Amino acid sequence: MWARVLLHLCALSCGSYANYYSVVHLRMPVLSHQNEKAASLGGAQYLTSWNMCLQSLYFTICVLNDIAGSNEIAPKNPPLIRRIKDYMLCTVAFPVSMFVGLTFWGLYAIDRELVFPKALDPYFPSWLNHVMHTNIMIFIVLEMVLSFRKYPTRGNGTGGLTAFMCVYLVWTFIIYFYSGAWVYPVLEVLNWGQRAIFFIVLLLFVNSLYFVGEFVNKTIWGKELRQLERAGSHKRSN
Fold this sequence. Notes:
single chain; mainly alpha; 8 helices; 0% strand; transmembrane; ADTRP_AIG1; transmembrane helix; membrane; Androgen-induced gene 1 protein-like
């Protein structure tokens, strides 16, 4: 389907350019909640940047699958690239993108200083902000609509997502103990107990987005999924 291929190329181009611009051209000031050590890490400290790399990797795999893999509903022997693509979409690409976009704009609406201080406006282009926090949701929702996949078991799916988020959480603590500064200003105004609750709530929220993706997938591709289930039941009965 040409629309699917066009989406993959467009998403990959946008994500790749955003990553390039962030590394080569973006020069951020030291913010009030930071110090020189924290600022020296640049975008590597933010989940937004992790997600942009994740999205670029995912849509690279999509393009490779378009070229050398398979986009059939039920290929007899799914290529490895197709299996990786489907697993990544379900476990990290969809929930993490939606998490980044929803939490960013939600906190931005409450108090932008908690996530994107006004001091960044002269340094951080508005188009880059939308590529990193808005386009990611649009592209991944379109991908859900245009590409079929069967979700893994919930244990495998939520396990992969939780592992990814825990790795990032550990990274957040490494940065804090290395630099003495929290990645996000919102963490500065919380005590340790409140931070623990904050992290748990966010972990529950991102896992709830996994189930949202599963529901959306069933809603869009329900007919095809039922056909696969009947075919699988027929094979087992024989």
